[in-house]
Amino acid sequence: MPDMHASLAFIRWPGKPEKLTTVAKFVHIWQQDGQQWRVSRIISYAHSVPN
After folding, report:
1. What is the DSSP letter of 25?
2. Is the dihedral of CA 28, 29, 32, 33 positive or negative?
3. Total domain count, the chain
4. Could you give the CA distance from residue 21 to residue 14 in angstroms, rounded to a whole number?
5. Per-residue pLDDT tens for 8-40?
6. pLDDT, position 3
7. pLDDT at residue 26 in the model
8. Of 12, 13, 15, 23, whose CB neighbour count within 10 A is largest?
């Protein structure tokens, strides 16, 4: 069962404001293991640098 998300990555340097560095999309692949579900893979794609 795929689960899709977008994510933002920031960098922090002491004494400076956060800076957006990358944007990417993620797919989480879930696998049923008995009665429980677990994430079996996380795939990132569509990486880009913000304008």
Report:
1. E
2. negative
3. 1
4. 16
5. 788 899 999 999 888 888 888 999 999 999 999
6. 62
7. 87
8. 23
Q: Which residue has the tokens 């922090």?
A: 12
State the Cα–Cα distance between residues 3 and 23, nearest whole angstrom.
17
For 1-51, give the DSSP string: -EEEEEEEEEE--TTS--EEEEEEEEEEEEEEETTEEEEEEEEEEEEE---
Q: Which domain covers residue 21, as residue numbers? A: 2-48
Tokens of 18: 């956060």
Tell me what pLDDT residue 2 has. Answer: 55
Q: What type of residue sits at position 24?
A: A
Residues 16-44 as b/e (b if ≥16 CB within 10 A, e otherwise) read eeeeeeeeeeeeeeeeeeeeeeeeeeeee
